[in-house]
Specification:
It is built from 20 helices and 15 strands. It is an alpha+beta fold.
Length: 520
């Protein structure tokens, strides 16, 4: 909507038209301001290919509370995504049902409703509604509105909003329908996404490009679908390519950020954009990702100017079914979804030991605790489950898990000048054994032995070294820590032991393979 003719009312913070209508100026995306009409009881706004609505009449909340809630929501809509309208409607509907189930009336506002009564209502709301209600109640209490009690608001802080983390567990435990893909599954999917069929139509081409961008950037679907048609750009060298990707969720009002992609994906995007129908839609709606008609279906998304997340999801799933990609672990067609791609990337980073702050930066989580979930799930939930299944000892879990080899050094015949020892002490006497040497020309700041096996490219593993003893040492150290932990589920520490163990297994395996090749 054009702001021409609107004037700002500094008392209410709203913008008003000559005919008396009132609007919230939503600045979530500074490049595309959204004007939300809040004149009547039904507030709505088109955003990201979908019409979002908050209908106060359907909620049926008394005016004694609704008026104050409306003011609070209007303030939030200035900086949040317009999709917040739908979220609030769903959450307040949950509150309304919980109030009715507990025979709680709001005709006199929030006055006189005790903490124990609210706790009963709390138990009947869904988890997201609890979080919203708590924040709204606290805001009303701090301003002395609607009879909200600040002491009750302080008690609500200690109330648990989430019942469990079952959804997160499904993702991190590689649930066949909702979790991260295994490496074998993902290789099949990625191969299909990267393979361009000369006979494919515009719809399938757009779907593949969408999937490839999700894979390389690990961004949220709404971010990828919101990219401008000229989002792709290259560095002056002509050898580096980037996508300007808009922000999402809590990153309010921030400009799009550039994320590097491979030259292969850049070439594929350019080829996709040269298709006449694709190019015409890109120019018309100023979007890089557009979904042309397939099989004569209507293009309702054009009414709102952007492909909605639900349509992109449906196209991706339909494409995977037509490809007939069979999962090696389920022997059924894979269930491909946008968020499974993102979670696969997050899980892979956690498995490879990427630091929490880097995972948070790449996935653009508002809180570092979201990245912690990947790390802890891999270290505490996934690891014990796979270990019980393999039961082959330390280091085998990671080898079986993702075919990731953590040994990045070289196998050599001589020890070299800077030997690396197994740090073993028996009955108070050091009895080191040489396992290799350091190839660095300068001092190394990393921990010897552990860091050497675990991914250091400068580690020169001695071909005749007692690497089996290295493995025995790691296993003995793990047992000591496990005894101290009192049999608890293995934590990130256990994951670290497994990473080193997997690297030692790889060294032993490479030496053995080389010996077999020589004997042939």
């Amino acid at each position: 909507m054009d702001r021409t003719g609107l004037t700002e009312n500094f008392e209410t913070g709203l913008w008003e038209s000559a005919d008396g209508r009132r609007f919230v100026r939503c600045e979530f995306n500074l490049d595309e301001l959204v004007w939300i009409d809040v004149t009547g009881s039904s507030w709505s706004a088109p955003y990201a290919g979908t019409e979002y609505t908050l209908d106060w009449a359907k909620l049926g909340l008394s005016d004694a509370v609704a008026v104050h809630l409306q003011r609070a929501i209007q303030g939030r809509l200035k900086s949040r995504s317009p999709s917040y309208l739908g979220t609030v409607h769903n959450d307040l509907s949950s509150l309304r049902k919980a109030l009715d189930a507990n025979n709680v009336s709001l005709h006199s506002g929030l006055t006189g409703i005790s903490a124990s009564i609210w706790l009963g209502v709390w138990g009947r709301m869904h988890s997201h509604a609890r979080s919203l209600f708590r924040s709204l109640y606290t805001e009303l209490a701090e301003t002395g509105a609607a009879g909200a009690d600040l002491h009750i608001a302080m008690q609500m802080v200690s109330w648990k909003a989430r019942n469990d983390l079952q959804t997160l567990r499904r993702v991190m435990e590689w649930d066949a329908q909702a979790g991260a893909f295994t490496s074998m599954e993902w290789e099949l999917i990625r191969g299909g996404l990267n393979r361009a069929d000369p006979a494919e139509d515009d719809a399938d081409c757009a779907t593949r490009i969408y999937g490839r961008v999700l894979n390389e950037t690990l961004k949220r679907p709404i971010q990828v679908l919101s990219m401008k048609h000229d989002a792709l750009w290259d560095a002056p060298s002509g050898r580096e390519f980037f996508l300007r990707i808009p922000k999402a969720k809590g990153q309010v009002g921030e400009r799009p950020e550039s994320w590097q992609i491979t030259s292969e994906l850049a070439d594929a995007i350019l080829a996709y954009s040269r298709r006449p129908e694709i190019h015409a839609l890109q120019q018309r709606f100023d979007r890089l990702i557009v979904m042309p008609s397939s099989c004569g279906e209507s293009l309702e998304w054009m009414e709102h100017g952007q492909v909605p997340v639900w349509l992109a999801k449906a196209r991706l799933q339909a494409w995977a079914k037509r490809q007939g990609i069979i999962s090696p672990r389920t022997n059924k067609k894979v269930h491909l979804s946008q968020y499974r791609i993102r979670h696969t990337g997050g899980t892979a980073m956690a498995i490879q030991g990427v630091p929490r702050d880097e995972i948070q930066e790449i996935l653009e989580h508002d809180s570092p605790y979201s990245a912690d979930a990947y790390i802890q799930a891999v270290g505490s939930d996934l690891m014990p489950a796979l270990e019980r299944a393999t039961d082959r000892g330390v280091g085998q879990v990671f080898s079986e898990l993702h075919h990731i080899y953590f040994f990045k050094g070289s196998i050599v015949d001589t020890v070299g000048r800077r030997p690396i020892h197994i740090p073993v002490v028996v009955e108070g006497v050091a009895q080191p054994a040489v396992v290799g040497s350091c190839g660095k020309s300068c001092a190394c700041k990393k921990h010897p032995f552990w860091a050497c096996y675990n991914g250091c490219p400068m580690f020169l593993a001695w071909r005749q070294g007692p690497h089996e003893k290295s493995l025995e040492f790691v296993e003995s150290e793990l047992k000591c820590w496990s005894d101290v932990e009192g049999g608890k589920e293995r934590s990130k520490l256990g994951k670290d032991f497994d990473r080193v163990g997997a690297a030692i297994h790889e060294v032993i395996g490479q030496i053995k393979q080389a010996q077999e090749n020589r004997s042939e």
